[in-house]
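Suppose a colleague, Dr. K., hands you the sequence of a protein chain of 93 amino acids and asks what its three-dimensional shape might be. Before reaching for any lab equipment, you can write down a predicted structure in token form. Begin with the sequence itself:
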Amino acid sequence: MAASGNLGFHDLPSLSVEKINGERFNTFEEFYQRLRATTDPFVILEDYAGYEVAIDRQLADSEHTEILEQYSIHKDRSKEVSGWDQTLAQRSQ
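The predicted structure, expressed as tokens, is then:
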């Protein structure tokens, strides 16, 4: 979905992500947890060919609600994925 934070990247063909910030993951849950837990200013997604996309976390966070409204998206994650957030919160306590 087009937004100012993904200029030039929003229309990429399907990108099969192999690494997040240089680390491999085995499941979508592991990918999601790493994405949510990172405090790095940029998230680097890398595909199997080594192509990288850098996401500015602060910009992405600031545009999140606007993007949901613009594209009439009522929820940004499923009930199951919301449960993963609770697990992350418990681990950080």
